[in-house]
Amino acid sequence: MEVLTGIQQVRCASWHYFFLAIATYYASVLLFALRWKYVLKGTGVDVPLGELFKANLAGLFMNNITPMSRGGGELLRMLWVSKLRGVPMGISAVTIIYERILESIPVMAMVAVGFLYFTTSEALVLMPLMVGLALIWMKWERFIELTLRVFRVDLSKEERERIVALRKCSNVNLVGIGASSLVWILDVLRLKLITLAFGLNVSLPILVFVSVVNLILGIAAFTPGGIGVVEGGLVGTLTYFGLPPTLAVSVVVLERFISYVLGSLSGLMVLLTSGGREVWRALKSR
Predict the structure, then answer these.
(1) 43-88 per-position pLDDT tens digit
(2) How many domains does the chain have?
(3) Name one GO cellular component term (predicted).
């Protein structure tokens, strides 16, 4: 009954806020593509932004049908630029890993803000992550060698040198961290717009915390795309902060419609219309 009431609330939402929330979602995907483009350029590889945008959409679809959020999307992105654009698999793999390293900086800042606003002890979970990232940064060359072994890819000496030099590319690092920061700002903004659609004025620290919970649940959940786990966790978090259960369900329904349903449909359309079938066949063969 509560879910049905939440759906009825959705029908009464202010739709201009909803459409703005959709716009922030696709703006985030574009920023992901821009970040990847700069990281690839740092290795001497130039791939059109539109192609990377499509690869990211296809990756989102794959993420939403595989467990633990990014279970298959990253591999699909690697194969996309390798199969359709001739980028060596090792370079595509390392650039995606490097993206994640750059992304972790604003993510850790967001997690710290989200947790420290309410408590300090939980923020200690950041320490192992920070130590791990510091070790990767300091032992970058050895980390590259390990990555290339894992993906069983042989690169020329010149290609290896370009990958190792990524760490010293200040413009790549600035764009990568900046784009990642904007993505997470847009993520919080999307939640703000969805709550405004129901006439709710939820404070930004709470929305940052909810965004952190969304991120953690999406990564940790073993169901495809976090189905069930993410929704239940977000509804529980919102009700904990005082939202009526029906409104909490309504906010989560709209958020998941954008990030899961629209994201999946967009990625599926890309796979069906933009050469993704070849990539899909290569992915299934692995």
Answers:
(1) 888 999 999 999 999 999 988 887 755 567 888 898 888 887 888 8
(2) 1
(3) plasma membrane
